């Protein structure tokens, strides 16, 4: 999701070249200023520089961590590079719909300029997400993919300096093992995650690598042969009447009272209770209104 309303941008001339200056406000009300070189000389390129500046301002997503900031800088530089190449820019790739199957075929078979087999696997993942997968999935799915790839997967492989062509089954297998056990990159600690979460990350990695196979960047998909950790069958625990009554007493009068009550009476998950819409409630049953809420796996 774009954060353009919270980001300001202007052009600055440095040594005969245009630079884009981005400014945004952090959660703690502090101001961060970033500078990106456009590689465009001042003379004769003002209009093009202004177009590029607007593109960067619209695409920039305000980061919440230092790690996200570094990934966002790399993404902006990639967008600038693609803009200057005057091909495969974000405007030239149209979102896919049922009536746009030809565009989907083009994306799947053409190798975008700028993709190299010897590029860092972490950079390839971000490129694939922003220039290919983003236009084949809905916004909510994209947000989930982006959180996984930018914040979790890419930093690990970037630290390992793994390239796309040299990535092995063992490299991926070791990553999954590290995810289960927990690991550190510098001072940043990544806590252990469950096998089900590893499986979701595996889906991202495998799909990204399959695209590289489809456009002949690599001969085969190393993720196909990776052994996934066993997912233990989930056994739910149910609150007793006494426990439910105690929970109601604790949340009564707080902002949690409504979502907890909805979850208890209607079996809603946390995100469903928080995201409940008025049109999902059938008020015709005054004594016991029913709720129709769609779930996604």
Descriptive account of the structure:
- With 297 residues, the protein is an alpha+beta fold.
- Among the domains are: 93-225, Tyrosine recombinase, N-terminal domain (DNA polymerase, domain 1); 241-291, no CATH class.
- It is built from ten helices and seven strands.
- A three-stranded antiparallel β-sheet has the order 1-2-3, covered by helices on one side. The protein has a two-stranded antiparallel ribbon with strand order 4-5.
- Strand 1 (7-14) and strand 2 form a beta hairpin.
- Helix 8 packs antiparallel against helix 9.
- One of its GO terms (biological process) is DNA integration.
Enter the CATH topology name of the domain at 93-225: DNA polymerase, domain 1
Indicate the structural class.
Answer: alpha+beta
Number of helices: 10
Q: Could you state the CATH homologous superfamily of the domain at 93-225?
A: Tyrosine recombinase, N-terminal domain
Give the N-terminus to C-terminus distance in angstroms. 22 Å
- State Rg: 23 Å
Largest sheet: 3 strands, antiparallel
Please indicate the percent range of residues in DSSP E strands (runs of 2 or more).
5-15%
Shape: globular
- Strand order, sheet with most strands: 1-2-3
The total count of strands amounts to 7
Task: State the CATH architecture of the domain at 93-225.
Answer: Orthogonal Bundle
Low-confidence stretches: 1-5, 87-112
What is the residue-averaged pLDDT? 81
What fraction, in percent, of the residue positions are helical? 40-55%
What order do the SSEs take from the amino end to the carboxyl end, as H and E? EEEHHHHHHEEHHHHEE
Organism: Amedibacterium intestinale
Domain Core-binding (CB): 119-213
GO biological process, one term: DNA recombination
GO molecular function, one term: DNA binding
């Amino acid at each position: 999701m774009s954060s353009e309303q919270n980001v300001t941008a202007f052009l600055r001339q440095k040594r005969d070249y245009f630079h884009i200056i981005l400014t945004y406000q952090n959660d703690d009300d502090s101001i961060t200023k970033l500078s990106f070189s456009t590689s465009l000389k001042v003379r004769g390129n003002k209009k093009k520089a202004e177009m590029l500046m607007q593109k960067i301002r619209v695409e920039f997503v305000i980061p919440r961590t230092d790690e996200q900031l570094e990934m966002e800088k790399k993404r902006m530089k990639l967008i600038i590079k693609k803009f200057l190449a005057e091909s495969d820019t974000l405007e030239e790739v149209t979102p896919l719909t049922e009536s746009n199957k030809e565009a989907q075929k083009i994306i799947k078979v053409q190798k975008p300029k700028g993709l190299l087999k010897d590029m860092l696997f972490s950079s390839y993942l971000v490129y694939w997400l922003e220039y290919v997968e983003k236009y084949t999935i809905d916004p909510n799915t994209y947000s989930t993919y982006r959180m996984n790839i930018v914040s979790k997967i890419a930093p690990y492989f970037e630290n390992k300096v793994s390239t796309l062509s040299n990535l092995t089954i063992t490299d991926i297998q070791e990553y999954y093992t590290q995810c289960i056990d927990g690991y550190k990159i510098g001072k940043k600690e990544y806590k252990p995650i469950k096998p089900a979460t590893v499986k979701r990350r595996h889906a991202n990695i495998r799909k990204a690598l399959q695209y590289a196979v489809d456009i002949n960047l690599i001969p085969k998909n190393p993720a196909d042969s990776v052994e996934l950790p066993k997912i233990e069958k989930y056994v739910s625990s149910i609150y007793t009447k006494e426990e439910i009554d105690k929970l109601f007493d604790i949340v009564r009068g707080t902002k949690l009272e409504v979502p907890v009550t909805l979850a208890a009476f209607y079996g809603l998950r946390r995100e469903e209770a928080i995201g409940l819409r008025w049109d999902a409630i059938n008020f015709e049953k005054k004594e016991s209104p029913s709720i129709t809420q769609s779930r996604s796996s």
